[in-house]
Design a protein that fits this description.
- The structure is a single chain.
- By secondary structure, this protein is of the alpha/beta class.
- The protein has seven helices and five strands.
- It starts with a strand and ends with a helix.
- This is Putative kinase.
- Keywords: Kinase, Transferase.
């Protein structure tokens, strides 16, 4: 099974992905963690739209997911998964693994607070172009987030204050 954890920045995807992976008993592959690791080997890297490191990260992310799916390994895949960018990478994996999507939704103000706090306290976040400096632009981008739309079982989780539905219900959805 390929468990896709998706949502806009600051929606709690990474935290939920690691909790789901622990509950299911499988690895979590997080796109931002891959990029942060790749940035260590790229001195002086400056993030920007479509920068070379971001493009290599995308390819690496799908290579890793393809390897797990091809070997019959359940895996949690976590990224923003906006439909226009991510669908081409996910669709081929549907022939190798059953895909289930857990989409995180969050109040934009809460997401903004999370991402600014995370950026201030976690130096490795500097490799991401989160555009949190302009709050109005960031909120607009949050509101037009184009979530992944595959014809697969999908669960919406509100992460504004905890998880609704909770982790036991999320795990039950994944076992169906």
């Amino acid at each position: 099974m390929l468990i896709v954890i998706s949502g806009p920045p600051g929606s709690g995807k990474t935290t939920l992905a690691h909790q789901v992976a622990q509950a299911v008993g499988c690895p979590a592959i997080c796109r931002d963690e891959i990029k942060e690791g790749m940035a260590h080997a790229t001195p002086g890297f400056v993030p920007g739209p479509g920068d070379p490191l971001t493009m290599r990260t995308l390819a690496t992310f799908f290579d890793v997911l393809g390897l797990f799916a091809g070997r019959g390994t359940t895996v949690v895949a976590e990224a923003a998964f906006q439909d226009r960018v991510w669908r081409p990478g996910l669709e081929p994996l549907a022939s190798q693994a059953e895909i289930r999507i857990v989409h995180c939704e969050v109040d934009p103000e809460v997401a903004y607070q999370r991402i600014t706090a995370r950026s201030a306290s976690t130096p490795s976040r500097s490799v991401h172009e989160d555009a949190y400096h302009d709050k109005e632009r960031w909120v607009r981008n949050h509101q037009v987030f184009d979530r992944i739309a595959l014809d697969v079982p999908t669960l919406i989780v509100d992460t504004t204050d905890g998880y609704h539905p909770g982790l036991p219900e999320i795990a039950a959805f994944l076992r169906r």
